Amino acid sequence: MKRQCFALDLKNDPQLISEYEHWHKAENGWPEIRRSIIDAGVTDMEIYRTGNRLFMIMDTPDDFRNDEKAARDEANPKVQEWEQLMWKFQEPLPWAADGEKWVLMKQIFKL
Questions:
Q1: The whole model's pTM is what?
Q2: Which InterPro entries does the record match to this protein (predicted)?
């Protein structure tokens, strides 16, 4: 199993943060998005928030490739619709590459 962690910021607006959390509750999430994540090979995913910073943990098989998931997402109109909706709430980290949302974090410690 491979575990990857990502970071992203939300716009620092309490109303937008509340709306973002609304869309991520199980009863409000889009089933097509959940299905696309599972179909891409993700075995578990969690998102945590502190202030306006998000932290995502993604567990996948060892042979999982982020570029392949990105290509699948790009070709999926429903995922693109979701991403457009989410971009209303999100802002890239200052060091993110152009067009990059979630930034892969570097592990610096493991017990």
A1: 0.93
A2: Carb_Metab_Mutarotase (IPR052996), Dimeric_a/b-barrel (IPR011008), Rham/fucose_mutarotase (IPR008000)
